[in-house]
Amino acid sequence: MVDRSVLLQRAKEMRRNPTETEKRLWQHLSASQLGGYKSRRQAVLEQFIVDIFCPQKALIVEIDGDTHDLPQDAKRDLRLSQKGFRTIRFSNQEVIKNLDGVLMAILEILSDMPDRWPVSSTPNPSSEEEGLK
User: Fold this and answer.
1) Residue 127 CA: distances (Å) to CA of 54, 80, 124
2) How large is the average pLDDT for residues 14-36?
């Protein structure tokens, strides 16, 4: 298992140097722009770094390039689902060619998912704390 401090440092580097598709999508998700849902980029969950994470709904959004290892992604998604997280995936091409459709799909899923905690007592754990649950 990878040391947590190594993961946190790697996630920080990834936030500083996002891919073009991550930048495009994040422009619409940052500052709770999409339906008022807060999101984090390159969040550490368990022993993984996820592209985008909505803590309120436990939704992970992954943007996949051409070189993704589908069997490895499936194992990762299964492990995270066993911890209560849901992962949705979009290709780089979907984000580039159909950003509005990607945003609508994310918003629809977020709207349909239950909150992880009562809205009136929403905790705001740091990204470091989130993966410890």
Assistant:
1) 11, 16, 9
2) 94
Closest CA to 21 of 116, 91, 88: 91
Phi and psi of 120, rounded to 5°? -65, -20
Which letter, b or e, does each residue of 85-119 get, where b requires 16 or more Cβ atoms within 10 Å of its Cβ?
bebeebbbebbeeebeebbeebeeebeeeeebeee
Classify residue 114 by its DSSP letter.
P
Give 5: exposed, middle or buried? Use CB within 10 Å, 0-12, 13-18, 19+. Answer: exposed
pLDDT tier at 130, thresholds 50, 70, 90: low
> What is the rounded distance in angstroms from the CA atom of residue 70 to the CA atom of residue 102?
20
Does the structure show a pLDDT above 80 at 118?
no
- Residue 8: how many other CB atoms lie within 10 Å: 16
| Global pTM value | 0.84
